[in-house]
Structure formats: C-alpha cells, structure tokens
Amino acid sequence: MQYQSPFANWYTYSTVHKPLPDFTCETGLVLFPPELVPGVGHPLVDKLGNHAARRLTMRKLESYNAFTEKLEYKAVMAASIKIAQNPLAFGLSEHAGREARLIVTDESHHAYVAIELIKQLPGFSELPPLSPSQPPFLRGLEELETSLPTEFADDLLIAFVSISETLITSILRGIPRDPRVVSAVRNTVRDHCIDEPRHHSYFVYVVHQHWASSAPDRREILGPLYAKLIRLFLDPDIDLCRAWLLEAGLDRNEAEVVLRDYYSPERLAASVRADAFPTLKLMERVGVLDHATARSAFVEQKLID
Ligand SMILES: [Fe+2]
Ligand SMILES: [Fe+2]
Fold it and tell me: For 213-224, what is each residue's pLDDT tens digit?
C-alpha cells in the first residue's frame, strides 16, 4: 500500500497548535453521559440518592482521562517512536517513519489535556485515591509479551496500537454533540476527535504494511494476536467498576447485581462487536481474516461468527 500522508495540514489543524479547550462546567449538566457510567440509573444506585450517581460519574471521568494518559504515554507514543526510528522493520516507508513523530507530538498533547481537565475541574482534587491498579491493557500486554518470542516485543506493541488507533469508540463519537454533558468534557473530547481521524488513516496503512511485510511464521503469531488485542482494548475493567460501586455505598452483593445487569454477556458482546466494527472491516480488507489460524482466533474471541 502506498503511503499517503494524512498530515498535509498538520500545522493548521492539529490541536497542539490551539489554546487549551474551554473547561467551563455548567451547573445542572452531567460530567459524562449517564448510560456510559456503570450503575447510574440502576434502582440499587438510585436508592442511595444523587450523591452516589455523582460520585460514580466523577470516577468514570477520572478513569477515562487516566486511561487516555496511560494509553498515549505507554502505548501510542512508544509505538510511534519505534516506527520513527525503524520504519522498515514494519514494512513502512521512510516518509511514514518521519511523520510518526507528529503522532508522538499529538499524543503527548492529548495526555497533557486529559490530566489538565481533571486537575482543573472542581471537586476532583478532593477525591480520595482508589487502590492503585494499572489498566488491564498494560497487564495484558505484559502477559502477552512473556508468552511470545522475545523478538516479537516490538510487533506486539505496534499491533496493539494499530488496534487502539483504528477503533473508533462510542465515547469519542457521541460526547462532543451531547447537550447533557458539561462544556469542559465535550470540548476536550472534541479536540481529541479532531486529531484522531489522521491517526486512524495512518494506522490503517501500518496494519496493511505490517501484515503484507510479514513472513508466514510472523503471520501465524500476528493474526491471532490482533483478535486478542481487540478484546484486550475493549473489555471493561470490571474490578475498577466494582470498587466504584462499593465506594458509592453498595454492599458486595448489590455491586455484583449491578455489574451483572450492566455487563450482561449479551450486552457486552454486542457493544464489543459494534465498537470493533471498523477494525474488523480493516482486518477483512487486509486479508487477516483469510488466514486460517487468525480467523479461528477471531471466532474464539467472539468477534465474528
Ligand atoms: Fe490521542
Ligand atoms: Fe491517536
């Protein structure tokens, strides 16, 4: 696949060249769409009063921004630096390698804005820290790394970031236009949305080239890995949600009821497939799904039938 730079107007449109978003927090509006916060609207949480829903929503926003920072620093920037330093290792052009540095800059800015938002919104600095846990994607990447041949570590990181950068999550799509949500959050997500379509195009090219340049033995590992990485990126952090529900005032049994209702297997499977749709189409176009071992891994991960 020929590299077509998505960064032609980078100096004009990238949000790193703009002022920080307006962090206005209107009273009466919510910090996050209620249907995206596990437990909000559930009768067991409703009976605890408004305070519980507010706390759950704060935790959701806090974790969304902490996740963004970690994803940018530990995964997307790290992968983009590797690409910048050795594009040929993944079948990429020298021009694409040079422009990976622009992604490093964009993502560093996204991490900065994500943390500034949390620091500047009222009430967040008083939130007690929850038991420190690293996001499941970091744990999962570590586990996968130890199960793979050592020389595969860079391919693993590039594959994970290719997945995360080509998945358009329902969160990024809906929030900027959601009139129920405070301006601070809508503006921050909107700015992030301005940069991400360029990264999406870039990583479509990366997936094509990484797969096309891989010998049969590397495809045997890379193909099934894509399926596991899609689940790793999209599966919810149930332990963290449980901690929020307990903190909000539910007992252990009630928390399990809420989690079972919110993350029922049918609902989870449907939302993972919906969120994974653009990346699954990409896997089909590139030919990953024509590879027998890869295809059965996608079935096993319940991403296709
Ligand atoms: Fe980003
Ligand atoms: Fe990105």
Answer: 999 999 999 999
